[in-house]
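pls design
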């Protein structure tokens, strides 16, 4: 089996991670590699935002503001971004193009996010791609300082793999059910 096929086969989501996280410098070569996804016209219709430290609390406050919940519900929601020391916001950053439709640009941004998650996993980090109904609300947009042409795809929650983490179990597919001929 190729190294890439093996790495993809080992990928799993880690809903719980340790407080370890890759540094900005450690992320740079992974981002450079993730940027190699197929990208019609080379528009690079995406960007990534590192969310660390107190900025995670600001994001939690934005979740609460966007949700309108109060009390105990607000307290639970406000700490969600604290589940990992590093969150990487995956941003669709659409470019004006007569050749490349918005859906295709969205696919490129999702490809970068997934490729980055594979690379992080292969280098030993625990990853969970999280999203939800609050991702595209105005308070959350403001925290990320998005432009009018940008939307959040979600966040990669990144941290160390806990010592007691068990291998993920995912039901195998029958590939022929998904790969057909015309």
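designed seq:
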């Amino acid at each position: 089996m190729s190294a890439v096929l093996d790495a993809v086969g080992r990928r799993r989501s880690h809903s719980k991670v340790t407080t370890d996280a890759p540094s900005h410098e450690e992320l740079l070569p992974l981002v450079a590699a993730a940027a190699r996804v197929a990208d019609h016209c080379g528009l690079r219709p995406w960007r990534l935002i590192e969310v660390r430290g107190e900025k995670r609390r600001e994001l939690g406050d934005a979740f609460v503001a966007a949700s309108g919940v109060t009390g105990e519900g607000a307290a639970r929601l406000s700490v969600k971004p604290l589940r990992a020391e590093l969150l990487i916001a995956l941003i669709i950053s659409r470019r004006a193009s007569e050749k490349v439709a918005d859906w295709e640009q969205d696919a490129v941004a999702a490809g970068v996010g997934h490729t980055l998650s594979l690379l992080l996993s292969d280098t030993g980090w625990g990853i969970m791609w999280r999203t939800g109904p609050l991702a595209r609300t105005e308070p959350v947009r403001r925290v990320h300082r998005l432009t009018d042409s940008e939307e959040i795809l979600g966040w990669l929650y990144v941290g160390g793999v806990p010592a007691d983490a068990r291998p993920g179990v995912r039901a195998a597919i029958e590939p022929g059910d998904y790969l057909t001929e015309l």
